[in-house]
Every structure is written in C-alpha cells, then in structure tokens.
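Following up on my earlier thread - several people asked me to post the actual chain instead of describing it. Fair enough. Here it is, all 136 residues.
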Amino acid sequence: MEANKVELNIVVYTLVIEGLCKAGKIESARDLFCGLSSSKGVQPNVRTYTVMIQGLCHHGLIIEAEKLLREMGGKGCSPNDCTIIRGLLNNNETSWATRLIQEMLERGFSADASTMELIVQGYSRSGFVVSVKRFS
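Reply from S.P.:
Thanks for posting it. Predicted structure:
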C-alpha cells in the first residue's frame, strides 16, 4: 500500500504557521514564515501574511507586525482586513493606530462598517471618545 502524500503548498504552510502562533510558538512560526521563499520555494499570500501579523500582534510584537504589513504591501499583497489596527488597539497603542488609519485613508482605504466598529470599540476600550466622522 502506497503512503498518501500531502502536497506542501502555501495553504498547508499557512495552517502550520497559524497553529504555531496559537500554540505560543511565535519564534517557530516566524522562522517558518521567513524561510518560505528561500528554503520552501513558496511565496506568502494575503492569508499567510495576515496569520503571521495576527500572531505577532497577539504576542505584543507590534513593531515587527507593522514591518511585515509594510513588506506585504511592497510585495504586492494588499491587506484584506484591519489586523494590525486591532493589534495596536488591543495593545493600547491608540496613537499609533490613529496614525496608521490616517495613512491607510490617504492611500485610498475605505473603512467599512466592521472596520468602523473595530475602531470605535478599540478607542472606547482605551477610554477615548472618538469622532467617527474623522475616519470616514
């Protein structure tokens, strides 16, 4: 009987990275992510970047998460949600989140209802009264 083989593609690697992040093994997740292109021969996609950014934010590695966000944009992957904003707000980095939101708006980002909810909730948790009009 021939053993079944699993093709190791970006979907599989993304799932492994997500599992490592959730298990608290952020260094292992980071090492795997960083080696995707060079040693695994696959390119991270939007989902892979999002998973890694979420993991970094969850572990308080906000500076590294923002660097990855910028790298993502530089490689032609457009962020598909506000993971970094959520991470900043959850880590009480309200000013940083405000700056990044403003930068996103200047680049043509359009805040939808769920994004606005995230912003309002984040600012409320931080004790700020926010003018929603400012971000629309």
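The chain is about 65% helix and 0% strand. That should answer part of your original question.
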